[in-house]
Design a protein that fits this description.
Layout lengths: L5 E3 L6 E3 L5 H11 L1 H15 L8 H11 L1 H4 L7 E5 L11 E5 H4 L20
Helix pairs in contact: 1-2
The protein binds zinc ion (ZN).
Length: 125
């Protein structure tokens, strides 16, 4: 077996093979650099697990993220937002998804204020 060059993870100093990051930090780094891809894949696998239809293409989802302001929030507070289905009985497709903060997720019934029903978001910096 080719072990390659042994390096040390630049985040936790664990010895790693080949990459400069251990698998955990490599994944963390990848998520940080590819928040849309990461969210898209998470959403898709959640949909599958919950047996919900998933009709979003990556291109549609990327546009949704950009237009909804999701991108601006990335990495600021990962637990503060969620992607919500407007009609929970329906699957994931354009027109049935919106972004809510976890706080506003508890107060459904609020009238949409914009095309994507994006609540006021207070980014801490
Ligand atoms: Zn590490």
């Amino acid at each position: 077996m080719d072990k390659g060059i042994i390096k040390i993870c630049s985040k936790c100093s664990k010895p790693v093979i080949g990459l400069g990051l251990c698998p955990k930090h490599y994944q963390q780094d990848w998520r940080k650099k590819n928040p849309i891809s990461y969210t898209y894949h998470t959403l898709k696998s959640n949909a599958k697990r919950r047996d919900k239809e998933f009709y979003l293409t990556f291109g549609q989802f990327r546009n949704f993220c950009i237009e909804s302001g999701y991108i601006k929030m990335k990495g600021k507070n990962g637990t503060s937002f969620s992607i919500d289905r407007i009609d929970p009985e329906q699957g994931y497709y354009l027109g049935n998804i919106r972004i809510l903060t976890l706080a506003s997720n508890g107060t459904l019934g609020v009238k949409p204020e914009s095309k994507w029903n994006v609540p006021d978001i207070h980014v801490p910096f």
